[in-house]
Amino acid sequence: MEALDPSPRFFPPDEFKEKYKEIEIIYDIHPEGLDLYVELQYFIRKNIGGYFEREALRERGMDEVIHKISFTNEELEMEEDIASKIFDLLQNAEEPVELRGD
């Protein structure tokens, strides 16, 4: 199996810098393909409760959501599909209800 190309097309565009505090991608390689665990960490806005409430949300990990994207060995050969699935996740992931501050 060839190594994945670490070119910039696999990294999120600038439009996501305001949506996510951090994006972490963990690779889990297995004989049938590859699983990506994408951890999205959201900002906790100042309009959500007081300082202690925001810290409690961080402490409980309420600002982080982990998503799993799986690829077969055949799909790994189509790098546009990989980029498309990651981009789709970043574009459509919902902020946790606790962080919406509605």
The fraction of residues assigned to DSSP E strands is 25-35%
Give the overall shape.
elongated
Describe the main β-sheet briefly.
Answer: 3 strands, antiparallel
Helix proportion? 25-40%
- In the predicted model, the low-confidence regions spanning at least 5 consecutive residues are none
What is the number of helices?
A: 3
Extended strand count: 3
Topology order in helix (H) and strand (E) letters: EEHEHH
- Spatial order of the strands forming the largest sheet: 1-2-3
* Rg of Cα set: 16 Å
Calculate the terminal CA-CA distance, rounded to whole Å: 47 Å
The secondary-structure class comes to: alpha+beta
- The average pLDDT value, as a whole number, equals 85
Give your account of this protein's structure.
The chain is of the alpha+beta class and 102 residues long. Helices cover 26% and strands 29% of the residues. The protein contains 3 helices and 3 strands. It has helices at 51-59, 73-76, 79-92, and strands spanning 20-30, 33-42, 64-72. The protein is elongated and about 50 Å long. The relative contact order is 0.22.
